[in-house]
Amino acid sequence: MNENPSCRVYLFRHGETANSKEVCFNGHFDVGLSVNGEDQFKEWAQVLKDEPFKAIYSSDLERTGLSARLLGQPHQLEPVVYPELRELCFGAWEGLSVAEVEKKFPKQLEERMKNIEAFQVDGGETFEQLKQRVVPRFEKIIASHPNEQIAIVCHGGVNRVILSHLLEVPIKRIFRLKQDYAALNIIQYYGDEPVVELLGGATQMATAPQDKKIAIQ
User: Fold this and answer.
1) Does the domain at residues 5-21+33-88+131-216 carry the CATH identifier 3.40.50.1240?
2) 2, 33, 161, 217: which could join 202 in a potential S-S bond, CB 3.0 to 4.6 Å?
3) pLDDT class of 205 with cuts at 50, 70, 90
4) CA–CA separation, 159 vs 177, rounded Å?
5) In the chain, where are the structural domains located?
6) Over the stretch 105-117, which tens digit does the pLDDT of each residue have?
7) Cβ contacts of residue 99 below 8 Å, gap of 6+?
8) Reported pTM
9) Other beta carbons within 10 Å of 132
10) pLDDT tens readout for residues 185-198
């Protein structure tokens, strides 16, 4: 493996959403952040204020855009937006809670969990289709930042697709990769070889003054 470090990526999931009290299939539904979701990225911004970010990227949805803008404030960086980084499209399920989906589309949730890689909601995408639009954009972003550090704020499904691609995890196993709201994954490239240094990290404010650390939860 090439021992010379190249691009370093801080890959985030957006903060907690305004409709987080119920598990919802937001997909392309443009829900914003909750107050807690904003606070999560204000905290990340402070924890990472001295990191040498050269650019910050996000999808074109509000929950990622605001998370990225908050993260970029200490660096005076505005996010570069790509629609290819949007969450999986849930079609007829967009914006619905789990309870609503179970009521309106009986047995489809069970069917989805049995066939994660190929299941497709009416008007939506499969995870394979998501991978086909996300990974090429991700790779172009990486290629444009040799020997630089960047941040990307995406979605739970998008992050899982990226990480499963890098780790060669089959799509049917992607839910083994935990991605809470505001989770951080750190990927260090050595030439073309990625090493996932942190998976699903969260901020924890330590009790000692001015002592802040990143912990895995």
Assistant:
1) yes
2) 217
3) very low
4) 9
5) 5-21+33-88+131-216
6) 999 999 999 999 8
7) 22
8) 0.92
9) 13
10) 999 999 999 999 99
